[in-house]
Amino acid sequence: MRRTIRTAALTAILLLPLVISAPADWGALTSAQPAPSYTYQGTVRAVNARAGTLELITGVGMSLRVVRVKTAPTTRLLAGLKPGDVVRAECRRTPAGLVADRVEKLEVGAR
Amino acid sequence: MTRPWVVLALPLLAVGCQKPVKPGDPLGELSRAERDRFDRGKVVFDSVFTPETGLGPLFNATGCGECHENPAGGRGDEVEVHATAFHAPVCDPLAQEGGPVIQQHTTPALKQALGIDQEPFPPSATARAMRTSPVIFGRGLLDLVPDSVLLAYADPDDRNHDGVRGRPNRFVDGRIGRFGRKGFVPTLREFNAGAFAAEMSVTNPAQPTEEDVGGKPPPAGVDPAPDPEINQEQLDLTDDFVRFLAPPTPLKLGKDGRHGRDLFSQIGCATCHIPTLRTGYSPVQALSNREFAAYSDLLLHDMGADLADICLGLATPADFRTEPLLDLRGAEHFLHDGRATTLEQAIELHGGEGSGARDRFKGLPAADRAALVAFLKSL
């Protein structure tokens, strides 16, 4: 009995940090829903292939934004991607920021 | 015997009796459904936003109609602040610092959170520009002029040696631009959606994230309205209202005005202010394959050091898009920042590629100058 209580107490102590750091919406964690995805289309402002980071100018009309994304280890940055290129990046939001799972270079057409 | 004459005369009579289009009128020949969208779009356009309905936390105006109120959605008298950084030949639109439009007001919640009355001026900016509210009549027609027409008027290397070059601007993604004083924005739809975000910080399906405060997201809790703050239908209706606003009918020219119109071409104004353009195909019949009075080539021209302010896209500080001369008779201020209070002043402030036509204007006898101005005042 004493061993059972000691085991339970030890387990509780070990699990305590996990409980404290858990998101407030515990249900979201346990429901195994995929992270929301975002698709950004923008113009490359800066690219660091070694660090796997990409800055995109996105926006519409005179309302411009910079979106900073990291690439997942499995995401291949297109060879030769450079500032000025237009890309579509399929991203998901993570605690570390936006992570792009897919980056696709686009052609710009005339009207 | 008289019947053929009646058949011929009736359409002519109808054309002669066509009501002139007043500022704020919709295009003629809109279908009933299109006219309905114009009317419903005007309701959104005239809406006044509050923080609870999406305004701010940074803004220049509380609704479209605040700047484009005079009369019926066409023109306004507000002046706003833009900024970019020019490191020749590259122009930085300062997207990382909140973009080129510097909002001049804050909501009470943002003021309480950050203690600011306006968006901080970007530290990396190399220049500041003042911008009057643009006329928005006839923009649906300008939107439909094919890129190929603009490119046909371009002469970046001045191959005809007339001192006038002309080249298209391009958006950050490389598409040809035409809207805005620097001709930076490719389409009317984008210009309108961007205006909701940049002028009122009203998020919408085309720009679903809130306006940055100097490049940083607004503090939590200062923006109570969920994004997007207007839906696709509201955005589309507003876009249709602007798209369907007709250019006002020019006034009938007298003898002086007709002489002024001839002089306008003879002294070279019409080299950039191309009198008529033609739209391409549109599913909206009132906009499709229409020749209309534009008085613009929608291209960038170097206007000289005195007018220079910010860069934008491929536009250097001195480059401006040829302003379409629509509804000049209703204007009280002229040029991109409203610095000219008369048309004569506006012409005399043309520099760079416009200096040849300006000098020829200044060399005209007083009566001819007056005739040319009389023509412009008919537009």
Label this structure with key terms.
heterodimer, A: 111 residues, 2 helices, globular, B: alpha+beta, four-stranded antiparallel beta sheet, two-stranded antiparallel sheet, 12 helices
Describe the structure.
The complex is a heterodimer of chains A (111) and B (379). Chain A has a domain at 37-106: Nucleic acid-binding proteins (OB fold (Dihydrolipoamide Acetyltransferase, E2P)). Chain A is built from 2 helices and 5 strands. Chain A has helices spanning 2-21, 26-30, and strands at residues 37-48, 53-60, 63-71, 86-94, 97-106. Chain A has a 5-stranded mixed barrel. The N and C termini of chain A lie far apart (80 Å). Chain B has 379 residues and is of the alpha+beta class. Chain B is built from 12 helices and 10 strands. Chains A and B meet through strand 1, strand 2 and strand 3 of A and helix 7 of B.
Please give the CATH architecture of the domain at 37-106 in chain A: Beta Barrel
Distance, first to last CA of chain B? 42 Å
Which series of helices and strands of chain A comes N to C? HHEEEEE
CATH H-tier superfamily of the domain at 37-106 in chain A: Nucleic acid-binding proteins
Structural class determined from secondary elements of chain A:
alpha+beta
| Helix residue percentage of chain A | 10-25%
Mean pLDDT of chain A: 73
Number of strands of chain A: 5
Looking at how many chains there are and whether they match, the oligomeric state comes to heterodimer
Biggest interface, chains and residue tallies? A-B, 19 and 36 residues
Radius of gyration of chain A over alpha carbons?
Answer: 21 Å
- The poorly predicted ranges of chain A are 10-31
Q: What percentage of residues of chain B falls in helices of 4 or more residues?
A: 25-40%
Overall shape of chain B: it is globular
What is the N-to-C succession of helices and strands of chain B?
A: HHEHEEEEHEHHHHHEEEEHHH
Which fold name fills CATH's third level, the topology of the domain at 37-106 in chain A? Answer: OB fold (Dihydrolipoamide Acetyltransferase, E2P)
Number of strands of chain B: 10
Q: In what range is the share of β-strand residues of chain A? A: 35-45%
The dominant shape of chain A is: globular
Instruction: Give me the number of helical elements of chain A.
Output: 2
